[in-house]
Write a structure and sequence with these properties.
Two copies of one chain form a homodimer.
Chain A (H helix, E strand, L loop, with lengths): L13 E6 L11 E6 L5 E6 L7 H9 L7 E6 L7 H19 L6 E6 L8 H14 L4 H10 L8 E7 L3 E10 L6 E10 L5 H13 L16 E6 L9 H21 L7 E9 L2 H13 L1 H8 L5 H9 L11 E4 L2 E5 L2 E2 L12 E7 L5 E8 L3 H8 L4
Parallel strand pairs in A: 4-5, 8-9, 10-14
Antiparallel strand pairs in A: 1-2, 2-4, 3-9, 6-7, 7-8, 10-15, 11-12, 11-14, 12-13
Catalytic activity (chains A, B): N(2)-acetyl-L-ornithine + L-glutamate = N-acetyl-L-glutamate + L-ornithine; L-glutamate + acetyl-CoA = N-acetyl-L-glutamate + CoA + H(+)
Function (chains A, B): Catalyzes two activities which are involved in the cyclic version of arginine biosynthesis: the synthesis of N-acetylglutamate from glutamate and acetyl-CoA as the acetyl donor, and of ornithine by transacetylation between N(2)-acetylornithine and glutamate.
Pathway (chains A, B): Amino-acid biosynthesis; L-arginine biosynthesis; N(2)-acetyl-L-ornithine from L-glutamate: step 1/4; Amino-acid biosynthesis; L-arginine biosynthesis; L-ornithine and N-acetyl-L-glutamate from L-glutamate and N(2)-acetyl-L-ornithine (cyclic): step 1/1
Chain lengths: ~400, ~400
């Protein structure tokens, strides 16, 4: 779905805004507000597994325990991580200020931050930004796009998605960052909205099911951010109570769409790489093998060079703690089987990796399970972007 | 120890040679032979933990079961990995040919290979190289240097070390590659020699103790090669039977010297980085924390940019499965404490990382254990070297 399409404001019952609050030194948009006008305010969230959790993660996780949100405030330009009790107070004060302006309770306001770790939030700028964003709140495409834009850091384009179910409800959302849930480059944040009527447990279960096979399977560099957060807000404004399985499918579609956009805009990306692992003894093995290949710098640099160096793939998967039989293993790239039966199956010149999209298929042939991990190459652009300035 | 110093031929009882056999397309030296003339031929080896093991690893591991070696033959330019039963036959034939030429048994000959995975060994070149190397076998500095040179791949200098114990014995060796034992870039191979008199169990225990705190703690990119091998050969020619603890110390010194040389010559290195982890609940935790920081691309690119971005270090260690208390944690770089008590302790401008050597000290403050992992930065040179050609 192209940037500019309706995201969080696609489903009925939501307003959004994105403003330049002066947190980013660039002067660009850096504060977003998403408000759920109801009639219902059911919500769920998943958060980073990193032991070093940013203040907004600690706050929002606590708030989400009651599965109810009126609003989410997000800022770019400062992660508010590793900032101690003072940083937590800043997050709390941000939520309080949003609550005051909107006339709701602070316990109904989630906070997300992304940017440099170890710096305090400039609270005057945040308060002014909240005031400006609250005044700018609107339904419609422009408002959703502004919010999606205000959370960007090293991203080059806004990422939005929307799916309308024939039963009469919609699921929308935006995301920023470039990595797995519990990522990595500059934090992954996503806000999803729906006007379906859902109970808290249904919504929570749907979010966990959807993120497990989407955000959790994007792995750009194995990092895990202190701030990663995916929130979903349900307004019930459509009056439609969906079948839970169908809703999970729609939510998964939106997450998958956003994840593809994150993959395509990852730092320094010149190749989008799908690592498909088949024939695993169980799904955990498939994920572990895919993730290890996706994180291997020798594989990632070879693919940057369009080099079908399958020996590096064999090397990478051989160090995974998974059930592997080297003689049964098959490795293919862009449709050409390169390794099978314990030895080379084709000359590497038989495969063309010069395009932007690469598919690696590893068939372990030891069981029926599979998983796909999405990743990118390791390019000069990645090194440049991550060495030339602090993020 | 500068290249050119005596390595494997430093201890008495050893001859070596390195020749150009025509395996490398560059035409450089690519086949080395190290012979133990005794009077004793005690040996021990440690090998890659990768599930995908090259043919020479399968062969040498089997040979080492009797803890006795007359000779080691090593080649660069072809890893002979993922080559199936035919590849194993090539290794076996190589050992047989060495055995014939030297008048020993094939079961007394270890084989090591390094280079591209998935290609078959050019056996005519190997046989010719073995003949030439056997004819060139010599004691003395030049022979050891030639052998150390013939195993290089992307290395830019030969790595040799020698320690003489006042009790009258010596420990020498050479190494190639750039990673941890069970590494990584282009394979790590090392051959160590000593003229001390040692039993098989003593030698084996000393090798495991020495590699555990040296080769095992060099981690350039987390990779684990299919071919990694460290062998030690004891000739007994000095007639000196050392105290086992003292010998382990000497062997560790030689390994440590070689590992420092590998670190300094790693692919694309512009910074040598020591990650010192203190105050861990146990040694495994210290190693896991150090290794995760050392492998984190966001940390490695920041350090390439001389940027004391300690937030990335905090992020990296927060994803380790180890006992960590964020409020107790301290992070320092080149002697300046940057994070303590859950928040920033100094401005990042207080630390200078512009030099080639960087020391990161992480004190977990939860126990008495520590470990140091040696690594390098992630530079444009690394990406270039690993994307521009197959290795």
């Amino acid at each position: 779905m192209p940037a500019g399409s309706t995201g969080v404001t696609g489903p009925a019952g939501f307003r959004a805004a994105g403003v330049a609050a002066g947190i980013k030194s660039s002067g660009g948009k850096d504060l977003a507000l998403v408000v759920n006008d109801g009639p219902e305010q059911v919500a769920a969230g998943v958060f980073t597994t990193n032991k070093v959790k940013a203040a907004p993660v600690l706050w929002s996780r606590q708030v989400l325990e009651q599965h109810r949100l009126r609003a989410v405030v997000l800022n770019a330009g400062c992660a508010n991580a590793c900032t101690g009790p003072e940083g937590f107070q800043d997050t709390h004060a941000t939520a309080e200020h949003v609550a005051d302006v909107l006339g709701v309770g602070a316990i109904e306001v989630a906070v997300c931050s992304t940017g440099l770790i170890g710096e305090r939030l400039p609270m005057d700028a945040v308060r002014g930004g909240v005031d400006a964003a609250a005044a700018a709140l609107d339904v419609g495409e422009r408002a959703g796009f502004d919010a999606a834009t205000a959370v960007l850091t090293t991203d080059t384009v806004a990422k939005q998605a929307l799916v309308r179910d024939p039963d009469g409800y919609a699921v929308g959302g935006f995301a920023k960052g470039a990595g797995m849930l519990a990522p990595n480059l500059a934090t992954m944040l996503a806000v999803l909205t729906t006007d379906a009527v859902l109970g808290a447990e249904e919504l929570d279960a749907a979010l966990r099911a959807a993120t497990r096979v989407t955000f959790d399977r994007l792995d750009v560099d194995g990092g895990t951010s202190t701030n990663d957060t995916v929130l979903v807000l349900a307004s019930g404004a459509s009056g439609v109570r969906p079948d839970p399985a169908a809703f999970t499918e729609r939510l998964t579609e939106v997450c998958s769409d956003l994840v593809r956009q994150l993959q395509g805009d990852a730092e320094g990306v010149t190749k989008t790489i799908d690592v498909v692992v088949r024939g695993a003894a169980d799904e955990d093995d498939a994920v572990a093998v895919g993730r290890t290949i996706a994180e291997d710098n020798l594989v990632k640099t070879a693919l940057f060079g369009s080099d079908p160096n399958w020996g590096r793939i064999a090397m990478a998967l051989g160090r995974v703690d998974a059930r592997i039989d080297v003689d049964a293993l098959e490795i293919a790239a862009n449709g050409v089987t390169l390794f099978a039966g314990g030895t080379r199956a084709a000359d590497r010149s038989a495969v063309d990796l010069s395009g932007r999209e690469i598919e690696i298929v590893v068939d372990l042939h030891v069981g029926p399970h599979e998983a796909t991990i999405l990743t990118t190459d390791l390019s000069h652009g990645y090194v440049e972007e991550n060495s030339a300035y602090s993020s």
